[in-house]
Amino acid sequence: MNSTDKIYFQNHMPENVCFGCGIHNDQGLHIKSYWEGDESVCHWQSEEHYHGWSDLMNGGIMATLIDCHCMGTAMAHAYKEEGRDLDSMPEYRYATGTLNVRYLKPTSNKHVVELRARIIEVKGRKTVMQCDFYCQGEKTAEAEVVGIRVFDSSQAEGGNVFKS
Question: What EC designation does it have (predicted)?
Answer without folding.
Answer: 3.1.2.2
